[in-house]
Mini-ribonuclease 3
Amino acid sequence: MKFAQYQFLCQRMFAQDENGTIKQHYDEIKPQQLSPLALAYIGDAYFHLFVRTKLLYYEQNKVRVLNDFGAKIVSATYQAYAYKELQNEYTEEEQKIFRRAYNAKSHAPRVASVIDYHLSTGFEAVLGHLQLSGRQARLEEICQKSFEVIIKDISDKQNKN
């Protein structure tokens, strides 16, 4: 996106009408019409909150420990790991959403490999689609299984040291 277009969108984001009321640009959110990266944006936020909440069952006082493990668990590397471990459990629809997001044009951060970044983007898009579609039970199931395989791997690695 060119800078001028970005500036235009930012200025328009919370534009006021003649009465000073900030108007929404859309009447509803249709997950099937959102870009895969917008779905991943929501899925990332959901998984962060899910993990932070789950970690309170393991530690409730040391925020630094919570933050360290939270950051590790929601990393692109571990999200990619969770996807690979559970990929055979995804429905056909979820695989389609995953592939769209995996193939979406985006820039990988320096802290993860390009493949892990794309895998994690696909994982997050599936979560975002489930969240916005109101499919809470399936969303919880995938998040719980992902959390379990990730913390098992972390535990196994800690026990080897």
Remarks:
- Residues 34-160 form a domain with the Ribonuclease iii, N-terminal Endonuclease Domain; Chain A fold (CATH 1.10.1520.10).
